[in-house]
Design goal:
Elements (H helix, E strand, L loop, with lengths): L5 H10 L6 H12 L4 E2 H6 L5 H14 L2 E5 L5 E5 L11 E4 L5 E3 L23 E4 L2 H7 L1
Parallel strand pairs: 4-6
Antiparallel strand pairs: 1-3, 2-3, 4-5
């Protein structure tokens, strides 16, 4: 039996026309199981892969539009699977100022900016919301 997320990871890699190496499958499966975006270190801790293998897998995923990377104001890249088909942000992100957890707000679409800027080409659009997450709000009560 395949570990959780492995079958879906293989299907995503096939769709993205990437080689299904064991390392890529393992790294992608970790991201698929995650409830929030993960840092390189967090992915490394959850896999049997080397640091370089994780970096290479993440870069290939990003180039293929499988994941996007998030920098939530702490100078640490986090990665999350996104099915929008490109590596730039298609939704905003929320960072809890108490626990530091970063959440993808997938139900909130970002506006299309092309054409609104007089011929400029937008290559990246990032929206970050900061505050206190529901989990931490419960602890404050």
């Amino acid at each position: 039996m395949l570990p959780s997320g492995s079958r879906e990871a293989k299907e995503i890699l096939i769709s993205a026309r990437l080689k299904r190496t064991p390392g890529r499958v393992e790294a992608l499966a970790v991201l698929l199981r995650a409830r929030s975006p993960l840092s390189h270190q967090e992915i490394l801790e959850r896999t049997s892969l080397s640091r370089v293998s994780v970096y290479r897998a993440l870069e290939s995923f990003r180039a293929a539009g499988i994941v996007h990377r998030i920098e939530a104001g702490d100078r640490l890249w986090r990665f999350a699977v996104c099915d929008c088909g490109h590596s730039v942000h298609c939704h905003p992100h929320f960072t809890c100022r108490l626990c530091g957890e970063v959440q993808c707000l997938n139900r909130v679409a970002l506006p299309a900016m092309s054409g609104a800027l007089g011929g400029c080409r937008v290559e990246e659009l990032e929206v970050y919301l900061r505050g206190v997450c529901a989990k931490c709000l419960g602890k404050e009560a």
